[in-house]
Each structure stands twice: as structure tokens, then as C-alpha cells.
Amino acid sequence: xxxxxxxxxxINYIRxxxxxxxxxxxxxxxxxxxxxxxxxxxxxxxxxLPTRGCxxxxxxxxxxxxxxxxxxxPQQPDFTIILSSFQKILRNKLxxxxxxxxxxxxxxxxxxxxxVPEEFQLKMLEELSQYEVIKEVVVESRPEYIKDSxxxxxxxxxxxxxxxxxxxxxxxxxxxxxxxxxxGFFWEDFExxxxxxxxxxxxxxxxxxxxxxxxxxxxxxxxxxLSITKIVSLxxxxxxxxxxxxxxxxxxxxxxxxxEYRTPWLWSLLYLCREIKE
Length: 278
Ligand code: SF4
Description:
39% of the residues lie in helices and 18% in strands. It is of the alpha/beta class. The longest helix has 17 residues, at 217-233. It binds iron/sulfur cluster. Iron/sulfur cluster (SF4) binds at residues 54, 56-57, 63-64, 67, 69, 107-108, 142, 168.
């Protein structure tokens, strides 16, 4: 059992009340920014695709207690339009004088076929492989959609060594995943997915969440440090620590409004950075 039934019911109750406020459709959002590529300075071209959103957030379990991204996703995405906008933006924005990392975010899982039909996943990645200036590609996915068979198909469309798959692990502690975040998966699921990605020649990024609900500042510092130790021993390539922000329409926002949650301190992040460097 990877969920706490009472906790999930409470989250789902809040979610159900907010979901009807989503728009029907939306355009592809994108921006360009300076970034540090693996080997040099470069540009990042970031896309937010207007998919239907995270299947976990739409499930009867209500999704993660801290996440309100689903409210920004439209109810009826049109992938023919999404693909043609994506192609047009690439044609217009990529400049031969720079090297790029292209990040495709969906506020969910790019590898979830219900969210992005497989045909479009493959077409988008194939499109990226046509551009010499693109040196890195990042997509995000929950572990359950990371399958050897899907990655084999992807490897026919793009050089896997430039692909990084980012997973929102949040914590390596299964009790925090279940009783604080309602993540719906455990450390072991992340481990399996990470190994599958590495075996297929791509890179793995792990997101960690600093100070989820019901976890004190001190305990969250300890949890991040312990999680990093486990992640590093697994050979994960990139770690991103996300200090929590309050999303509307979530279990966390209700705690915050009742003064039962305080956002983390910047000093704790500084402390974490120093400890991690050691
Ligand atoms: S944090 Fe990720 S997995 Fe959780 S509900 Fe949000 S998009 Fe879905």
C-alpha cells in the first residue's frame, strides 16, 4: 500500500472542488534563458506543453499534497496544434551561434501516453534530433511511465546520451512520500526507473522537495542530506533541490492559510548547499 487512504481522500476532496476552474484550451508557453550546459555556457529553450496534466493529480487519489500545477493545464489539448507550434518555435528561435538545452515540461509526465500520446512524444524528440545546436534535452516523468520498451522506441529517434529524464522523487523516505506528500510511489520505484534510464543510455535528474508538510525544518534538512547520499550512490547525474512554494487549491495551501505551515528559510538552503558541497 503506497498511499495513506485518509490523507489521499482529504487531498482529493480539495482537488475535486478546484478542478472545474481549469481552462478548456491553452497555447504552448515557451521562453529562452541563459543556462549552464554540461560542458559550456549556453541557452535553454523551455517549453510548457498544454497537455491535460498529471494523471496522478487527476486520479481518485488526488495527486500530491503540495502540487497545484494541474489547475494550469487545459481540459482539451489538441496535439496537432501543439506539435506544429513546437516545430515553428524551434525553427524561429534556435540560433546557429549558440548551443542549447531544450526542456519540455508538461506539469505532469511527458512519458505518460495518456498525457502525451506516444506518437507525439516520438515526433517531438525526433524533431529535436534534427538540430545540431541542441546538445541536451530534458523531459520529466513519474517512475511508472519509465519502461524499457518505451525507452527503446525513443532511442530510435534521438541520441540517448543527450536526453535527461527528470523524476520528482521529493524524498527517499517512504513515510514522507506516503504521509506528507501522497506521492503514490516509493523510493524502490524511483530506483527501478533510474536504473532503466541508465541502462538505456540516458541521464537521470532527481528533484528533492525541501520542507514538505508535517516535516520540521530540521528534519527536512536531515532528509535532504540522507536522500542525496542514497541518490549519489545510485549514480544519478543531476539533483535539483526545490524549496517548497505554496500552490493554490492544495492541501498545503489550506494548512498555510490556517497558519499551520511555515515556508522554509533561505538560511537552511544555504546550510544545505554547504553541507552537500562537503
Ligand atoms: S508533483 Fe508531479 S506527480 Fe505530483 S501531482 Fe504534481 S505533477 Fe503530478
